[in-house]
């Protein structure tokens, strides 16, 4: 019941955001990126990442608005902000200030330049995403977990079929998992305390479908931004 009430609050907040902007804009397409496109995301909070038998997560009343507002020599200019009534307590940047950054698409590659909520590790000059459909390993998405979630420093590429994110099922999407060692917690300790990173589920048609960040000193929590399409 509690989860249902939170979900209803999300719908109200998102509907009010879209109403504020007037006519509903086109969502962000990586295969046809244009100024004026806008996508909305809601947040999931997941627990016990390292426990493969667990899949505990909950919705948080945070809404992220991502807009394409311009284009220059560096690429497309993106602007994003958390809405006024977002909780923000679990946000790494904990603000409602608008952030602007660049998304550059060259051939089959997308690169992010600048500070972003949606693209978590841009301070490491990442991510660099392949846009065309990726073959290789197939992953399954269940709740906020992914089959074969790694627990070590690694970069994995693959795809998911029929991925259910928020209230929509996506027939096929690319997947990129990147885990890396943190050095902010002092001397080396067992991997379970030092490794964290990001996951992106995305496609050329829908842009970022889910971005996920995992990793804290206990390495048992994660945050997701899930695309919401009307």
Topology readout:
Elements: H1 2-20, E1 38-47, E2 56-72, E3 75-82, E4 99-106, E5 109-113, E6 128-130, E7 137-139, E8 141-142, E9 145-146, E10 154-165, E11 168-181, E12 195-203, E13 207-214, E14 221-228
Parallel strand pairs: 7-10
Antiparallel strand pairs: 1-2, 1-14, 2-3, 3-4, 4-5, 5-6, 8-9, 10-11, 11-12, 12-13, 13-14
**Helical content (DSSP H or I, runs of 4+):** under 10%
Taking all Cα atoms into account, the compactness measure Rg is 17 Å
**Poorly predicted residue ranges:** 2-22, 184-193
Average per-residue pLDDT, rounded, comes to 79
Number of helical regions:
1
The rough form would be described as globular
Instruction: Give the strand tally.
Output: 14
Summarize the biggest pleated sheet: 12 strands, mixed
User: Helix and strand succession?
Assistant: HEEEEEEEEEEEEEE
Secondary structural class? mainly beta
Report strand order across the widest sheet: 6-5-4-3-2-1-14-13-12-11-10-7
Beta-strand portion reads over 45%
């Amino acid at each position: 019941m509690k989860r249902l009430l939170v979900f209803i609050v999300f719908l109200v907040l998102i509907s009010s955001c879209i109403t504020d902007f007037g006519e509903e804009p086109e969502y962000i397409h990586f295969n046809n990126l244009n100024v004026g496109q806008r996508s909305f995301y809601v947040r999931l909070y997941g627990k016990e990442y390292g426990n493969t038998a667990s899949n505990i997560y909950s919705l948080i009343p945070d809404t992220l608005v991502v807009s394409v507002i311009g284009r220059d020599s560096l690429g497309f200019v993106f602007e994003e902000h958390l809405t006024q009534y977002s909780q923000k307590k679990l946000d790494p940047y904990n603000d409602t200030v608008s952030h602007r950054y660049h998304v550059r698409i060259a051939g089959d590659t997308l690169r992010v330049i600048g500070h972003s909520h949606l693209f978590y590790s841009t301070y490491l000059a990442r991510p660099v995403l392949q846009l065309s459909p990726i073959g290789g390993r197939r992953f399954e998405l269940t709740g906020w977990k992914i089959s074969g979630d790694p627990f070590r420093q690694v970069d994995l590429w693959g795809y998911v079929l029929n991925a259910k994110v928020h209230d929509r099922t996506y027939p096929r999407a690319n997947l990129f998992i990147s885990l890396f060692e943190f050095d902010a917690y002092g001397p080396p300790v067992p991997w379970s305390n030092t490794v964290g990173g990001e996951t992106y589920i995305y496609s050329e048609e829908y842009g970022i479908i889910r971005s996920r960040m995992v990793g804290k000193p206990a390495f048992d929590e994660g945050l997701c931004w899930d695309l919401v399409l009307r």
